[in-house]
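User: Just a sanity check before I run the rest of the batch. Below are the structure tokens for the first item. I only need the designed sequence back.
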């Protein structure tokens, strides 16, 4: 019996596109379901075909797109929206044409006769481009964004807080090479259901609470219009769980101060399952065999590798307990050594494949294949970190950490006075305990050993043993609500060949921006930030091994377009375009990833 439109699902989240490659794609959907699973059917049509690889282009600057006349359905599939997954389903299509534009349609029935109500989207909104077979030729463009909380600006931007999302299609029209986006944390803010989730014993009801949050943050037409056609890779940060997860003092068990309290463990497990269903299921394949160690994911687009690190699954600010001068101090854990090892193994496997292609070309004595194998080797790694390595002023944050527990005690004491209670509540709601925010970044003192470990790894990729291919590293991040960049430096002689790593921040896309006056104070007080605790002996004496010079100064909501340019074998540039809310032109930074590798150290007088 045919399904009638009246029986259609009343709530639609998505459709969203993920895991794009040269020959495959995933389409994700969440619909309202009752007590049973529901199916949505999908058809694909090939609309346009570009050169399948850069090698197919006679002129590297020429753009040749062939439009398909009278496109027909080339593939069909089914999205099973499972009751067990709260109405979420996903379909993967394989064997697609490379560098091609496809449209897709959603149907209520297997015969493809009853269209699914798209809840405001037009059929022309549903499309995507696959990647070329070689990933990219001379230029790879993608979007970077984070921190999506439109309610903080909904009254003032004219689009219910989604003004930047509304502009993204126009931004993409100015950057036609953009093929995917990286959303590097805080896709939703689940803080508002924290109290209810902590009280709720029923796992299914906790999941329903999170689902309401996801639908509220994602069901806006401007948001959906972008992500129904732009494939996204997503990683969570604290707010996808709750504010400050892993660094919250109040989340630990009073009797077991290094363990999370049971109700907080329950909250985390629910948030983790919802992240798997709503976000991670769209991502490329992960380097580990399952999600037991985390949601880290790695993928490659031509010569560029992407390592998207999960810095929340194993986050714990009290991972290690020590006694110093009779006082208990803690060291934090941001991720497990096994997680970094999985990323290292993935990079090694990619290097091995590159070496095998080179050997094959040499064995065949094929000059063209040899040239292509040399040119296609992995040469850049984008390390996606949801939290920054440095931003704040250590003088300010150090003072806050020393005195903040006293501030909270005073606030709680004043809260016992009846006429002051509303002011105390406002303080707790808007400010609260700042220690979790300070302890969240790689630059925090409690994370110093972790920071040394990850920077040893990243600078080691840029300065490999003799005979290995050097890989330029760029760190991508969000979190701090002010876009900009910093440069991380190494003073280790072993890193002398390539002693700098650019650190690019895109945040927020839909959250109230960081106050300009606070940013001005940070930048006035701080020129260089020390990272980690390693020291290196230099001709000028002992110095910190890792430092950062910071230039975060764009206090506006934003989205960032990154463009990796490899025009010649010995050239690699990263162009970063900051699209700031209200500005007609982007702010632009350019990084030379090969030649700007030297650490300068100007000895200004004190």
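Assistant: Here's the designed sequence for the first item:
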């Amino acid at each position: 019996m045919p399904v009638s439109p009246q029986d259609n699902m009343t709530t639609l989240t998505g459709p969203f596109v993920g895991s794009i490659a040269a020959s495959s794609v995933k389409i994700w959907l969440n619909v309202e379901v009752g007590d049973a699973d529901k199916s949505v059917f999908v058809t694909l049509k090939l609309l346009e075909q570009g050169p399948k690889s850069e090698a197919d282009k006679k002129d590297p600057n020429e753009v040749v797109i062939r439009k398909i006349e009278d496109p027909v359905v080339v593939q069909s599939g089914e999205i099973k929206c499972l009751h067990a997954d709260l109405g979420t389903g996903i379909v993967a299509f394989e064997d697609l044409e490379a560098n091609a534009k496809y449209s897709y349609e959603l149907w209520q029935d297997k015969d493809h006769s009853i269209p699914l109500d798209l809840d405001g989207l037009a059929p022309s909104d549903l499309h995507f481009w696959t990647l070329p077979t070689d990933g990219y030729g001379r230029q790879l463009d993608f979007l970077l964004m984070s921190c999506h909380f439109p309610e903080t600006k909904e009254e003032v931007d004219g689009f219910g807080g989604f003004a930047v999302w509304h502009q993204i299609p126009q931004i993409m029209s100015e950057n036609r090479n953009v093929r995917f986006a990286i959303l590097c944390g805080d896709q939703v803010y689940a803080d508002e259901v924290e109290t209810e989730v902590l009280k709720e014993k029923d796992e299914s009801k906790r999941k329903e609470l999170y689902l309401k949050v996801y639908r509220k943050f994602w069901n806006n037409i401007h948001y959906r219009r972008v992500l129904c056609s732009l494939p996204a890779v997503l990683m969570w940060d604290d707010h996808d769980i709750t504010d400050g997860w892993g660094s919250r003092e109040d989340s630990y068990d009073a009797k077991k101060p290094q363990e999370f309290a049971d109700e907080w463990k329950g909250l985390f497990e629910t948030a983790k399952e919802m992240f798997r269903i709503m976000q991670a299921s769209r991502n490329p394949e992960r380097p580990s065999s399952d999600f037991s160690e985390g949601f880290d994911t790695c993928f490659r687009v031509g010569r560029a590798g992407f390592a998207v690190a999960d810095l929340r699954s194993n986050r714990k600010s009290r991972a290690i307990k020590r006694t110093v001068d009779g006082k208990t101090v803690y060291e934090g854990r941001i991720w497990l050594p096994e997680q970094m090892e999985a990323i290292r193994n993935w990079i090694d496997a990619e290097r091995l494949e590159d070496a095998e292609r080179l050997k094959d070309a040499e064995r065949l004595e094929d000059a063209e294949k040899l040239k292509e194998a040399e040119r296609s080797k992995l040469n850049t790694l984008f390390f996606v970190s949801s939290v920054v390595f440095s931003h704040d002023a250590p003088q300010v944050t150090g003072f806050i950490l020393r005195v903040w527990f006293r501030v909270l005690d005073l606030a709680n004491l004043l809260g016992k006075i009846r006429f002051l209670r509303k002011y105390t509540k406002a303080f707790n709601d808007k400010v609260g305990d700042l220690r979790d925010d300070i302890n969240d970044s790689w630059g925090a003192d409690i994370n110093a050993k972790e920071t040394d470990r990850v920077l040893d790894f990243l600078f080691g990729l840029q300065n490999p043993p003799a005979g290995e291919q050097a890989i330029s590293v760029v760190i991508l991040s969000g979190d701090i609500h002010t876009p900009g960049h910093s440069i991380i430096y190494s003073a280790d002689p072993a890193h002398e060949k390539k002693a700098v790593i650019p650190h690019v921040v895109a945040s927020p896309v839909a959250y109230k921006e960081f106050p300009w006056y606070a940013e001005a104070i940070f930048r006035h007080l701080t020129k260089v930030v020390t990272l980690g605790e390693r020291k290196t002996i230099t001709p000028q004496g002992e110095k910190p091994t890792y430092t950062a010079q910071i230039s975060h100064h764009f206090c506006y909501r934003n989205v960032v377009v990154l463009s990796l340019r490899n025009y010649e074998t010995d050239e690699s540039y990263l162009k970063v375009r900051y699209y700031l809310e209200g500005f007609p032109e982007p702010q632009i930074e350019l990084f030379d990833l090969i030649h700007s590798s030297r650490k300068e150290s100007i000895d200004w007088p004190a």
